[in-house]
Each structure stands twice: as structure tokens, then as C-alpha cells.
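Re: the 736-residue chain
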Amino acid sequence: MADPAFAVAAVDRDQPYLSGLNPEQKRAVLATEGPVLVLAGAGTGKTRVLTTRLAHLVASGKTTPFGLLAVTFTNKAAREMAERVGALLGRPTEGMWIGTFHAIAARILRRHAELVGLKSTFTILDTDDQIRLVKQVLEAHDIDEKRWPARLVLSLIERWKDRGLGPDMVPREDDQSLGPRRVVDLYRAYQERLLTLNAADFSDLLLHCLRLFTAHPDVLGEYQNRFRYILVDEYQDSNVAQHLWLRLLAQAHRNLACVGDDDQSIYGWRGAEVGNILRFERDFAGAEVIRLERNYRSTGHILGAAAGLIAHNAGRLGKTLWTEGDAGEKVTIRGVWDETEEARQVGEEIEAGHRAGAALASFAILVRTGAQTRAFEERLITIAVPYRVVGGLRFYERQEIRDAIAYLRVIAQPDDDLAFERIYNTPRRGLGDSALAVLHTIGRARVCSLSRAAEIVVETDELSPQRRTSLRRLVESFRRWRGAAESIPAAEVAALVLEESGYTAMLQADKSPTAPGRLENLQELVRAVAEFARLAEFLEHVSLVMDAATGNGADMVNIMTVHGAKGLEFHTVFLPGWEDGIFPHQMALDEKGNAGLEEERRLAHVALTRAKVRARLYFAGRRLVHGQWQTNLPSRFLAELPAEHVERQDSFGQTLGNAGRPNHGMRRGDHHRVIAAPAPIAYQLNPAADGFLPGNRVFHQKFGYGRVRAAEGNRLDIVFDKAGEKKVMAEFVQKA
């Protein structure tokens, strides 16, 4: 029975907090009893539904604030939810449990820590502490950490924890052998070590709660009786452990309302399980499913394009976003010659829009990978347009880029002590602070740089033989790299340094989720160096770029990854790099197959629905990879966009007919074809791209005249009169 002090006599459907809700939103608020799944598409007002539902449960006398549990995925969302509910009720939300999964689980665990072998004062370890602990376990079990990196072992353990599996629950087929030991043995030892330290990691917070609830029904009953109504935001991002935790808490009253969007489940790489939302009706019998499909953000054409794209996913519950607003502009698709032209065109449109009165903050450039930001950052700096990289560092501020540039600085300028000090022990060479102190001492005594001091030290006995050997190898490497810099292109020098220094190998051995992106950033750095003849020219360019990037201001263009843009919206969105291998990303396809493809398609759906008025898609005909030009096929997602909602343009912005639509009967691996680097010619896409037949006489602006030998979709095999046989995209040739 609800506390009458919080009850309001009777709430009819005309209460002020219900005004302005559309019929589906109101239904989601008023369906208070039993399990409810609110499928809330992008821009359909799900946050308003959540907060209004919480306020209604209290205002209608269904429960007190003490009987409510609201779970979010970020602390910021939890704070905003509490503030909005308080504003609707006209009083603070004291007593209401609103927080993230981990925060609420930690709160419960503090009260019952002894029941799982901890003290209430237990420490929650961060990632660095976890890695150190795993290293101790590896050493205790006589396992070579170089062969089996601690990050790899930790990632396997966390994967099991995300699935709610303790060491005794791991299926044997999921286990792996690490020489004399199996990973599950290390997992068990790791957990025992945590208990000895009176510590838990973040994944333990849910795992210990599951153990607590299953082993102690009285404790579970206490929280089941307390939380009469449970609400969960962003349910599509929940993992298996979180799902099991919710099921246990909701068993008594079954008043569980989950709000989410299966079409926006994009975090599978960090444990999210889209199956939680897809199986909701099976897991919670009698569940009511309410679809929020009316979109208040985007125009009709943007929604139509996004709906047509996501409809190709088989693993979804299904809904169709619509709007009462205007159809607006069609989504544009433009093919360009390379990433430089891509960045130039985006920059020009931003300049034109800003001159017409649009705020810079209304523009967003959304990239699939962080490495793509570099070309856009440099272009915006060149045209003096301020920008911010949201959710990350600017390209040249990233740790791996600063480290790589430090190597190049020491090659070009041996007296650069700051650069030398940054990388003399990166990757680790056994040269710690004591070795650096010796170099500083000699440098002051001889009035010389640290690099010169290192050359002196390797011929003396100030360092131990092992450290002296490591330092001698580094000194010899810099001599070799300086010699190479005099005879080979700057980009080859950069690639050589990253390989021979061990920096690339260090990141390849790093099994953290960020490592692949950091490796891509280094590849992008090599591409940046390739634009300059000498290292000194590149380093001067970087200095100027960093100096120009120091300005601050509120009105800036937004650059971010699509993952980082979830939940945001912008007037105009630029979506570059829609090419197979980039978007969808090849790693997702290689690791997860069709499941990876569907998650990539959901990510593309999220990207499109960030746009309110304009969405601009780009694909480039070639990109520089490891110093060689690589041809790219347009993303298969482009062919899945409904023709009535898109407008295809050539590289000059001229509208193409449907004949210019890319054909995607490609084979896996086609995007890896490498060609020699041609001159940067501005190509005009051919409107009749798919109309070529074997025997047709054609003209290519680089290779000249030739005859089509074979045609497969928009891929042509052409025997050119002077250049010989080449494989080219049909968009770049014309009938002769």
C-alpha cells in the first residue's frame, strides 16, 4: 500500500505532466502494471516518457519514491533524470533510487559485503589496478606475460563476467589454454586475490550481486519488496549479467519497464547483448510492447533513408519512424577522388553555411574511426574554421601520435631533449628513471643533449650491462633512421621507425578495445607524413597545426565518431568514408560475420538519424594506405538506401540519375586492391556507370583510351591502349 503522504487523490489523464504527450507516449506512461517494453526510435521523446512515467507513479499514488528504481547507463543521465522528475513533481526525489547499474549494485553490495566475502569498505579497482593484479597472477603461475599479455587475459575474464559467469560456471568450450594453465584457473586465482585485497572490479559489482541474490533469498526478497516499480533506460545496451540482475529484482511484482531501441544497439564490442531486447517478450511473459515511432527530430527524407537501410537487418523487432514535418532535402551521396577532396568539399559547405548565418555548432562531421578526423582537422585549420573533437583528443594530441612524432623529432633534431625523454623507454626497454638521471647528469656535465649523453654512456660503465645494451640499440637505431631519412621518402622513414622501434608491436600485443583504433591512427599519421617531401617540413607543419588549434570558443564545428554521437542531434551532418572496409568496418565483418554487419548497419542508422535537416554522405575512390593508393568500393549500405529519399551527385555536386547508383555485387576483399599512385585529378563521375558492356570503347582521364574486357557491376576490367590491363570503377570512365 502506498504511503498516503505521497499519494495524490486520483489522477486522470488530464494531469499537467501528461499534457503534450502523443497517444503512444501517454500509453507508455500509463501502462504501469506488468512488464512493458517501450521501443523508442531515435528522436521520439523517450527521455520525456521515462521521467513522466516516474512522476506519474508517485503522483498517482501507485508507490512512494522509496519504491522506485530507475537504472541508466551514465551518471549524467541519472542526474538529469532526477532533476526532471523533481521538476514534474514539484519536490526533490529523495528516497528514489536513480543511478547506473554499477552505482546501484555497489550500493547494495556495501550493505551486504560480508555475505560475498568482502568488507563494506571494499575498494573498486580501476583498469590499471586490474592489469597489475593480472600480471601478479600470471607471474605466480609461471606464465610469460609477453606471450600472454595481461590485457588479453583480463578481456577474457571480463567477457565471462559480463555474461554473469563466475569461475565455476565457465563452459569448458569457452576456456583457453595458456601453456601449462587454463584461463579459468587464472580467473579463479584473480578472484581469490581480489577477496584477499578486499577489492572488486566494476564487473564484480553485478556478479557479486547475482551471487548474493541467488544464495540469499531473504536479501533478494528485501529488494524485491522495496522496488515495486523498476524502469531501465537504454535497455539495448545491457549485457547478460545486467539482464539477469533485473530479472531477479522484478520477479515479485513484475512491474519492469524497459525503454530502448534495438535499431540503436551499437556497443556489442563492449559486451552489450542486443538479444536482451529481442527476447523481452519471451523472458517476461505477457509483456506489453509499445512502439514510439513519431520522430520530432529529422525530416521525412532522412527518416525514409534511415528506415530503408535498417530494414535490411533480420535481427530486429521492427518499427517505422515517421514525422508530421516536411519531407525536407533528400539525403545526398557524393563520390569524390580521395580523402583530401572529401575534406575540402565538407569544409566548403561549412564555410558557405556559416556565411549564410548558420552557427558552426550546428554542423557535425561523424566518422566511423578516429583516424578519419585528421584530414578534416587540417582542412578546417587551413580555412580558419574553429572546431572541437567531441569525446576525444584532436588527432595530433593523441598519445600514440605524440609518441610517434617524438621519434621523428629526435631524428630531425637530435638535441630535442623533450622528445627524447618522452620515448627513450617507450616501448619499455628497461630504461627507468635511474637511467634517465644518469643521462641528465652527463648532459649537464658535458653541456650536451640527452641524445649525445646516451652516445657517451653506452661506452662507459655508469649503467648496468643490460641497460647499457638497451640504450646502445636505441642509439644505433637513431643513427640508422637518420641515414635512411637522407635517402628514402619521409613516409617510409615514419613507417620504418614505428616498426623497428617496437611501437607497432606494442599496440598489436595490447588487447584493450582502444588498441585497434590507435593502430589506425598511426597508419593515418604515415599518410599525413606522405604529403611532405622531408621530415622537417612535416614537423614544422605539425607545430603550426597545434598552434592554430589552441583557440577556444563556444561556436565550433563538431567532429566525433558515430559511436560518440549517439543521443546527439545536429542541423547538418556530414558522413564521410562510406566505403566497404571502413563503413562497414572490415574488423567487424571479420570477427563477427553477419552479426557484425548488422551492428554496423545499426551504427549507420544511428549516424543518419543524428541529422535534423541535412545529411551528406561521401565515399572516396581511393585512399592512401601504407604509402600506396588503395581503391575502394562504395559502402554496400549506399545501395540499400531507398532511391526516393536520396540524391546522388558527382564530385562537382551535380545530380546524377539512378543509373549513377553504385552496384554492390562485390566479393569479399575487393576493397583491398592496390594500384600505383596516380596524379591527383578531379574526376567527374559518369552518370551511366552501370551501362558498360564487354567490347565498349572507353576513356579514362589517367589511363587514356581502352576497351572493356569484362564488367561486373560497377567494376570493369579494361585493356588500355598504353597502360595495359587495369581494374577500375565504372564511375571514372566515359564511353569513347
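Confidence is low (pLDDT under 50) at residues 1-13, 658-689.
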